[in-house]
Amino acid sequence: MLIEFRVAIDPEIAALVTAQQRELREADGGLDGQATETHDGIRYLAVVVNGRAVACGGLQSLDAETGEIKRMYVRPAYRGRGIARQLLAALEELAYQRGHSTIRLETGTYLPAAIGLYTSCGYQTIPTYGEYVGNPYSVCFAKRLPVPA
Question: Which Pfam families does the entry mention (predicted)?
């Protein structure tokens, strides 16, 4: 397994984001209405197994201190192997390297496995923010990153 940077227009990233958005629409009954674009401002990491990207996640800067994790997704056939946990740790490291002291993310109330992952990795529930305010299916989390000595 390799975790590497990919550009937003990478065909494998685009395919993973499309699959993620399709799965979200199916899970929430189409109520969420999230967009399917990959967003130019997101720095993507891909998890590559046997030459194929099987998972992705991105980091977007909200401000100098805060990064937001976006588009976390692991193909169903690769779930249960710890890939999401390793990808999350790599995204946290990227946020740290970019000078962020806090990382935020949003997920859906209908995704208990995602909520379990985030809480087990030290994320705390916070009020909805930004585009998620008013969405009854959104649950937001934040985590303080270590401060350099």
Answer: Acetyltransf_1
